[in-house]
Amino acid sequence: MTAIESKPAEAVVKAKATTHPSALSEFWFYFSRNKGAVIGLVIFLVILVVAVFAPFVAPHSPSQQNRELLLLPPAFQQGGNWSFVLGTDAVGRDILSRLIYGARFSLFIGLVVVTLSVISGVLIGLVAGYFRGKVDTVIMRVMDIILAFPSLLLALVLVAVLGPGLLNAMIAISLVNQPHFVRLTRASVMTERTKEYVIGSQVAGAGTLRLMFKTILPNCLAPLIVQATLAFSAAILDAAALGFLGMGAQPPTPEWGTMLAEAREFIQRAWWVVTFPGLAILITVLAINLMGDGLRDALDPKLKRS
């Protein structure tokens, strides 16, 4: 082949490379179009970094008590101290340090809850959607019963049975969130199961497990990723609610809901002990929800076409 003939071939290869971007670049293109999602991602990454490097970022130990500085106001308010930027609580502990360490607990709770909910919910939904019949009926009726109860009330009942504590709270919240993943997985599997590529794999001799986990499941992941993101924020809220009611993380654990519970009697005379933990929950949950909207925009084919 001459040099003249090779140049058009190289041009065609380059044109194909430019017209077919990688999956990651395509994902980022659609995700970045949602400015709120980008802002949410930045805020979430900042919270994540702060949580990971909490021992280096926090100015004080979260359990260190300063008995001479009880209910110290924030540094920007009269009577404040710049050594305690956000003030201290009722026993003299630095609120900023407790918020930073509390980010660790909140993100850890969200991660564990989502992992348990996704694994169990996807497996159950996959079985229900693939086999159908009586198995599907029994599974879905159980999920309907769970969904019939308010999520927080059911989580409270489960924690009351298992006993108060962070581990039991995470188990209870994951069980409450599980039906959403079961129903979503079942619906996606039922849609994909009748498509030609699945029938072709079945005719080619693919076994049941291969059809379920290698053929069908990868094509059901997009809505599950979005649901997992939203469940992450819901898990943080539920854990904070359980901590506030005394059924989640127990004092002196620096968990945001527990901090609110400890501070509720000082709402009128020390606004900062309630406001800052509440803002931490609000900002974190809002950032994760904004990310979820961006993931939906980037992963939903219908929204891409529009």
From TrEMBL:
Domain annotation ABC transmembrane type-1: ranges: 103-292
A GO molecular function held by the record: dipeptide transmembrane transporter activity
Membrane topology note: Multi-pass membrane protein
One record GO biological process: protein transport
Main location: membrane
Places the protein is found: Cell inner membrane; Cell membrane
Pfam families the record matches: BPD_transp_1, OppC_N
The keyword Transmembrane is annotated on this UniProt entry: yes
Sorted UniProt keywords: Cell inner membrane, Cell membrane, Membrane, Peptide transport, Protein transport, Transmembrane, Transmembrane helix, Transport
InterPro entries per the UniProt record, alphabetical: BP-dependent_transpt_permease (IPR050366), MetI-like (IPR000515), MetI-like_sf (IPR035906), OppC_N (IPR025966)
GO CC, alphabetical: plasma membrane
TM regions (residue ranges): 37-58, 105-131, 151-176, 225-249, 270-291
Family from the record: Belongs to the binding-protein-dependent transport system permease family. OppBC subfamily.
Designated name of the protein: Dipeptide transport system permease protein
